[in-house]
């Protein structure tokens, strides 16, 4: 049935002599499951789980090849011979499930996060990078040779480990592209100047690696079709590079993306937020096909659902699709499609929070909506409960639903209470913002899973001790969430609302609006964006260093772009200090200088408050034995904590140990 529905996606194909069981790939993505520049057991478990879930091709994250190219303390160093034994294990695990395994080879050049250990940043020329604010050191001739040797040695290590191929990271303005770009490469020796000279480094690497690894080992090149800035290669220049490198006759495939690491603007496209669609991004991929003929072509970015993937394979003449975040969110996506269980796929919501957001904070990879991602070694296979018990979960937001689902999966009887008539809690609010439809897909998934797992759902009921007394529960999880915080009443004639009112589509009739934001996170920005898109005059005032400071960088870039386009006035570094009858008084955080505004309405996005259920929680805690409190009810934070605590509390409460009270 699925084979008929997605005939291309599940058809076999070959790159060189290597055969793939389907067309689904997880493209290179850093995991930070790395210690001493080597993958950890968590790393191996992470990829093994994806192979087990049925993916055809795993391209592991960018592996460094030389000590000057390890861009973070958590970059893998493939030139270290110790990688061989580790990846022998990774390869054996992936092959066991019929998947194929490649690794990316990279030198980041000047695009580096400087640390104590990594402060010698190199590039073809000493041209600063806008995004990392680094002035690199110009590479010496002998270092260029050393780096080429590093590519050769690393490829050989990976071949010895049993991998099926390697992919050169020619995308996103890393070292290969830094040599190509006349804006970065100012050299006057044989590595710079003419097009041929600028291509020399890449040509040398490809030729030397091919000589070393032989004909059968797959070599591919990842390339940004458009850098989306004026630094990296784009359009015609990209096609010229592809024509030249394809002409070398050594590359077995091409993998296309968009974006550049060299600029704020270009970086927004590396892991594109929900605003962009795959078909918008790759309008001219067919020009690449004309150059490379039948050489396999891979496209990645915003292909998050099987129907999008199938369309790309059929209409755009693409051979493999990268579904990277889709597989971070659900490693079992391919096997669920094959088993005709698409409604059971955990659908990535393009939040960029748990995956790339955490990478940029040097934290291990997670997925905001899947608590097992990055923790596969510990939680991929949770054993069923030895004794079936009965639990209640109070609160049907993300944290409560996650707790209920986890308990039910472990075999327990679960009753989920929700005060409102609709499940979802804050997920209902988030969807009021622009470009957040994918949160709705996740909500649909969660509700359908609750039904599939026979969780008893009671909506429209505020739970008290008396209500709980009517049942016999072995434990209670309180996940009653939070409400928007509204500062104590000031005497003012100005209409005031919370950001949730705006996102809940309450009618805001006023035209001149000020949004008072406290930390630069989504409620304030998204309500400002929504109101401005309705042609209102909007100013956002934030008690943070910068607007949208608390959201992941690529999402922040998009917000800043939209705010500027929509004419939102941005005022960071200010706080609200007084509300007069007709005026708002603001004060600069550092100088104390005051400014006044006369808006018709104020929107408060100043955090959340969990006190509504506090008294009831305390009563429940004193009446019953096994009570845990999680998510915003415990302390308002983000979706990451809500989901993780829901999952973890469900495991803890069913362990029947005293330590279960850790969340109280
Ligand atoms: C956590 C994370 C780390 C990434 N690291 C890399 C990387 O090491 N090399 C690379 O070429 N792209 C990297 N990317 C980009 C992905 O390979 C992919 O192109 C991007 O996520 C867009 O595809 P998607 O919409 O299917 O997720 C990373 C993406 C994520 C989410
Ligand atoms: S953290 Fe967000 S963007 Fe990343 S995979 Fe999970 S849902 Fe998708």
Automatic annotation (TrEMBL):
This is 2,4-dienoyl-CoA reductase-like NADH-dependent reductase (Old Yellow Enzyme family)/thioredoxin reductase. Residues 8-339 form the NADH:flavin oxidoreductase/NADH oxidase N-terminal domain. It comes from the Bacteria. PANTHER family: 2,4-DIENOYL-COA REDUCTASE, 2,4-DIENOYL-COA REDUCTASE [(2E)-ENOYL-COA-PRODUCING]. Pfam families: Oxidored_FMN, Pyr_redox_2. In the N-terminal section; belongs to the NADH:flavin oxidoreductase/NADH oxidase family. Residues 393-620 form the FAD/NAD(P)-binding domain. Transmembrane segments: none annotated. Its cofactor is [4Fe-4S] cluster; FMN. Keywords: Flavoprotein, FMN, Iron, Iron-sulfur, Metal-binding, Oxidoreductase. The keyword Oxidoreductase applies. The keyword Translocase does not apply.
């Amino acid at each position: 049935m699925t084979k008929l529905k997605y005939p291309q996606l599940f058809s076999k194909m070959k790159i060189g002599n290597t055969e793939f069981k389907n067309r689904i790939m997880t493209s290179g993505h850093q995991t930070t499951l790395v210690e001493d520049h080597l993958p950890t057991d968590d790393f191996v478990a992470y990829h093994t789980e994806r192979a087990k879930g049925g993916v055809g091709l795993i391209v592991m994250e960018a592996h460094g090849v030389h000590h000057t190219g390890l861009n973070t303390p958590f970059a893998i160093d493939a030139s270290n011979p110790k990688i061989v034994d580790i990846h022998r294990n990774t390869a054996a695990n992936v092959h066991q499930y019929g998947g194929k395994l490649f690794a990316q080879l990279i030198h980041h050049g000047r695009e580096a996060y400087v640390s104590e250990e990594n402060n010698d940043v190199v590039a073809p020329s000493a041209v600063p990078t806008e995004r990392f604010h680094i002035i690199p050191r110009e590479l010496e001739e002998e270092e260029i040779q050393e780096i080429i040797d590093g590519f050769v040695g690393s490829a050989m290590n990976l071949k010895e480990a049993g991998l099926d191929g390697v992919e050169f990271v020619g995308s996103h303005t890393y070292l290969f592209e830094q040599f190509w770009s006349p804006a970065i490469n100012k050299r006057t020796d044989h590595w710079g100047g003419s097009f041929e000279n600028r291509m020399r480094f890449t040509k040398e690497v490809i030729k030397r690696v091919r000589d070393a690894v032989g004909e059968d080992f797959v070599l591919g090149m990842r390339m940004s079709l458009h850098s989306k800035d004026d630094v990296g290669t784009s359009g015609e220049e990209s096609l010229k590079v592809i024509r030249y490198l394809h002409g070398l006759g050594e590359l077995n495939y091409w993998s296309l993306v968009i974006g550049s690491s060299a600029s704020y603007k270009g970086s927004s496209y590396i892991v594109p937020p929900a605003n962009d669609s795959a078909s918008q991004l790759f309008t001219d991929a067919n020009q690449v096909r004309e150059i490379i003929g039948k050489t396999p072509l891979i496209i990645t970015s915003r292909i998050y659902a099987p129907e999008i993937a199938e369309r790309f394979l059929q209409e755009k003449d693409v051979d493999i699709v990268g579904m990277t975040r889709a597989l971070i969110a659900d490693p079992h996506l391919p096997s669920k499609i094959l088993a005709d269980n698409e409604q059971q796929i955990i659908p990535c919501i393009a939040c960029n929070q748990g995956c790339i957001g955490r990478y940029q904070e040097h934290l291990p990879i997670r997925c905001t909506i899947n608590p097992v991602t990055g923790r596969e070694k510990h939680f991929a296979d949770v054993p069923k409960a030895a004794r079936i018990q009965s639990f209640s979960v109070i609160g049907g937001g993300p944290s409560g639903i996650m707790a209920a689902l986890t308990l039910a999966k472990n075999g327990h009887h679960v009753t989920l209470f929700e005060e409102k008539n609709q499940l979802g809690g804050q997920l209902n609010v988030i969807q009021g913002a622009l470009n957040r439809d994918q949160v709705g897909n996740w909500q649909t998934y969660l509700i359908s899973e609750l039904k599939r797992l026979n969780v008893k759902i009671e909506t429209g009921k505020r739970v008290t001790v008396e209500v709980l007394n009517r049942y016999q529960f072995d434990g209670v999880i309180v996940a009653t969430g939070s409400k928007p915080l509204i500062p104590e009443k000031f005497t003012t004639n100005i209409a005031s609302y919370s950001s949730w009112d705006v996102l809940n589509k309450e009618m805001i009739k006023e035209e001149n609006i000020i949004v008072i934001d406290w930390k630069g996170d989504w409620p304030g920005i998204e309500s400002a964006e929504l109101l401005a898109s309705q042609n209102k005059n909007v100013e956002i005032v934030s008690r943070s260093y910068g607007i949208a400071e608390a959201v992941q960088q690529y999402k922040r870039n998009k917000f800043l772009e939209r705010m500027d386009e929509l004419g939102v006035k941005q005022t960071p570094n200010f706080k609200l200090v007084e509300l007069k009858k007709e005026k708002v008084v603001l004060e600069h955080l550092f100088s104390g200088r005051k400014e006044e505004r006369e808006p018709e309405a104020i929107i408060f996005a100043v955090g959340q408050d969990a006190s509504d259920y506090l008294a009831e929680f305390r009563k429940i805690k004193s009446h019953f034995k096994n009570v845990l409190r999680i998510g915003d009810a415990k302390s308002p934070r983000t979706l990451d904590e809500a989901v993780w605590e829901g999952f973890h509390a469900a495991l803890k409460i069913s362990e029947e140990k005293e330590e279960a009270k850790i969340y109280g």
